[in-house]
Amino acid sequence: MSTRRHIVGRIALRRETIRLRRAAALLTLVVVQSAGCDADPGYRGRTSNEWIAQLHDPNVAAKVDAAAALAEILRIKPGSPRVTGALVQALGDSTDDVRLAAGNALAQPGVDASDAVRGLITVAYDSAHADVRASAMRLLARVMRGMRGPEAEQHLEAVVRVWATGLTDPSVQVRSASADALERAGDALRAHSAVLIEGLRRLARDPEARLRARAVSILPSVSMPDSLAQAMYGEAFRDPVNAVREAAIVAAGRPARADVFLLNAITAALDDSASTVRRTAAVTLGTIDVSLLGTTQSALRHAQADADSAVRTEATHALQRFHQRGGVDAPPREPTAEERCRDLPRRTRGC
User: Fold this and answer.
1) What are the structural domains of the chain?
2) Cβ atoms 190, 222 nearer than 8 A
3) pTM: predicted TM-score of the whole model, two decimal places
């Protein structure tokens, strides 16, 4: 009997030992997983704190290296307030290279970089170097794209003001970066139009044709008096560069701005000397209800006899409301030799 009790006792003890071991293993797993969520991923064998400390190194290259390392850490763990806070402070560094390295680290998807906006604005205004100002404009655009709702609106007016200032910068590089940022912002600009108007007026007369085209592309997103909008569109429709006239046609065809004045301007472009401009006008009219204006229908019927086959096709599509009903063009065919020559300068060999 005592032997039986001894065996039963040993079995019970063994079961209890197994149960305790399992519980210990489970507890260890929970602790490890919990630590993993808050664990510092580090980079190149060094902790985040070590890289953060290096941001204060007297050597500029060491600070830039530290900012780049912290950028890699944020790729793995974008929600680290300790790392983002250190990088925001680095935006106030006396060296542009360090400031831009910190800005690039913060302007990553998933990183809460709202506190970086003020520092980047300072960089955009403060630097004596055009490439740094241009980079700050682009970084602000990337940071703003990562924000939503009230948080974005809180900073938008100040950022739009910076971009508007950039439109009048002496450097074409800065003007281009600012125009690009504004174009991407789209209809979010409408509530902040007042600070943009003067900058856009100057950009619309920029010596660089590509920037004049950018200016007219931004116009549909900005609220301004009709007389001023018509004057700016009018200049763009008369621009000597084809690409600017094409940008004006596309912008004028956006639904919010397709009034009678602009519809008339697009219609007139069907008689442009450049076939690419005529094509753009025909394509754009295909997205608008051309029954709004009888003269537009008449011009499109005339364009059905255009020398350019693409203009003829798109004029027919516009009259039939082909694209408005969901029609899609067939893959483009190879142009004939005659059509290729027509778009080349006179006396071109082989034409």
Assistant:
1) 248-327 (1.25.10.10)
2) yes
3) 0.76
